[in-house]
């Protein structure tokens, strides 16, 4: 299946100069969504994953589906002010702005093997902040970071130099 045909590219959204890579057509198509999750699942068949970490908001969709497929748990990394109970916070820069991420202080148990997932790797600011907040506060093993789409020209993976990174599609 050509998964790329289910990505819609919209120029000048949400700001002039940005080509927005939108995976909602893939989500709306059952076989395409299933194929995407199955391809990601296949990467982790032989390497046990305890928790899949999803980054708000689009990453949640992928994290929940993949975690279910792997029999793993899901942890949410959210934008500021959305998570109840005690949290850790981390500021970061976006391709089109800046923001704050939070994670709950009891999100993981020591030694858990985790996978981080998001829909798009652009500048890498969001995922680098996610790695930073996790490494600063938790004793877990980051097994891999997966993306549906990677915007190669922005070189976001250079911010993740010491970690295994995999993207299903490249632009
Ligand atoms: O690599 P970066 O330059 O950091 O950009 C990638 C991030 O940007 C988008 O999220 P956005 O903040 O737009 O939030 P959303 O998922 O809530 O729409 C995307 O889903 C990634 O999380
Ligand atoms: N070009 C882009 N398309 C979709 N999501 C993004 N997040 C950051 N850059 C993006």
TrEMBL record:
One family name in Pfam for this protein: Pribosyltran
Known pathway: Purine metabolism; AMP biosynthesis via salvage pathway; AMP from adenine: step 1/1
InterPro entries xref list: Ade_phspho_trans, PRTase-like, PRTase_dom, UPRTase/APRTase
An example molecular function term from Gene Ontology annotations: adenine phosphoribosyltransferase activity
Subcellular location: Cytoplasm
EC code(s) of this entry: 2.4.2.7
Catalysis performed (reactions): AMP + diphosphate = 5-phospho-alpha-D-ribose 1-diphosphate + adenine
Entry keyword set: Cytoplasm, Glycosyltransferase, Purine salvage, Transferase
Swiss-Prot/TrEMBL GO biological process terms: adenine salvage; AMP salvage; purine ribonucleoside salvage
GO CC term, one of those recorded: cytoplasm
Domain Phosphoribosyltransferase: 27-137
Subunit note: Homodimer.
HAMAP family in alphabetical order: Aden_phosphoribosyltr
Function, as annotated: Catalyzes a salvage reaction resulting in the formation of AMP, that is energically less costly than de novo synthesis.
Assigned protein family: Belongs to the purine/pyrimidine phosphoribosyltransferase family.
Name of the protein this chain belongs to: Adenine phosphoribosyltransferase
Gene designation per UniProt: apt
């Amino acid at each position: 299946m050509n998964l790329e045909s289910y990505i819609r590219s919209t120029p000048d959204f949400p700001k002039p100069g940005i080509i927005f890579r939108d995976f909602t057509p893939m989500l709306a198509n059952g076989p395409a969504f299933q194929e995407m999750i199955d391809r990601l699942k296949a990467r982790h068949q032989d390497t046990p994953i305890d928790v899949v970490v999803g980054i708000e908001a689009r990453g949640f969709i992928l994290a929940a589906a993949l975690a279910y497929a792997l029999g793993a748990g899901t942890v949410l990394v959210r934008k500021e002010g959305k998570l109840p109970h005690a949290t850790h916070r981390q500021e970061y820069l976006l391709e089109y702005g800046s923001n704050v991420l939070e994670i709950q202080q009891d999100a993981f148990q020591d030694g858990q093997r985790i996978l981080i997932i998001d829909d798009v790797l652009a500048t890498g600011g969001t995922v680098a902040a996610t790695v930073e907040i996790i490494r600063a506060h938790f004793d877990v093993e980051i097994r891999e970071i997966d993306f549906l789409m990677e915007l190669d020209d922005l070189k976001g993976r250079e911010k993740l130099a010491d970690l295994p990174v995999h993207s299903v599609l490249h632009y």
